[in-house]
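@channel anyone free to eyeball this complex?
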Amino acid sequence: GGAMSFLKRFPPPAEGVRHQQPDTEAVLAGRTLGSGTLYIAESRLSWLENSGVGFSLDYPTISLHAVSRDLNAYPWEHLYVMVNAKFEEEETKEAPMAEGEEEEDSDDDVEPIAEFRFVPSDKSALEAMFSAMCECQALHPDPDDEDSDNDYEGEEYDVEAHELEQGDIPTFYTYEEGLSHLTAEGQATLERLEGMLAQSVSSQYNMAGVRTEDSIREFEDGMEVDVAPVVAGQFEDAEVDH
Amino acid sequence: MEVSHSVKERTIAENSLVILLQGLRGHITTVDLRDESTAMGRITNVDAFMNVRLAEVTFTDRQGTVSRLDELFVTGRNIRYVHIPDEVDIRATIERQLEAIHRVRYFGGRDKGRKEFPRAKHK
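replying in thread with the prediction:
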């Protein structure tokens, strides 16, 4: 057979290597590529033969990976990796096709599949190899995901910190300070609570210089509670998240 | 009841049916893959991107060849179908998962603990 033309020389990955396993044979579709080192890095999966040539696989192209200890299926315990891509083995696809027969390559709907097996001389390393691959795979979620609803503001959103200036968070506010930090929702809540309070003491109340129709109607006989007037337009600066 | 350590993943799960699959941890089920192979095994983990990790797997490839795999990780993209076992109460499973997420989110009381943004941003 011919040389594996997809093999290239490149330096081993230096960053984000979650696991590396020396003395690991790489096998493609049943044909051995030699013995080398498998590098399970966050950016890609790489294997380099001891001579310095090898190949890399990008995680988005990897459909699945598995630990196989079934010696009936394959005589050595190994890490199985199924890749959604074609790797040339030999240049032999010259045979003419019978009429009506479809070759996999020509059918757009059937995706190419390549099966790699990584056989470490140290079988006990398979668990660690498998786990490292799971971790790295999870770092590469599918960008073509049809469910585009996964579009979240992913960072932790701390409502309090967002609305306050940098600095210490006070444990309580004076009335004016507190009002200035209210969102529209907070303002509505405050109004409602004050309404309940007003109801219980039968008194009118002012809020930001506005007297509600309800309070005029219901509490006409009540005492007028003089609340410190608040500057109009107070809430314009409040950050409202609709 | 294990819940993801990632805020983003919890939010995604809470708003999609992946939350049901996450509740299947420990159950034996069959996963049909995009290339027509199938994997039957015990679910050990499902993340928010529907990547599924199975243990003690009976794998039938697209040619029909059966083999056993100790552990299998299949990417969400390559899953066509996950069979929900008959004994699973779907509604109860989803509710349990939601409770677990809320326990994490509101740990320490309503206004303490982690503050999270539980809704998708509007488009």
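from a first look: Chain A is about 20% helix and 25% strand.
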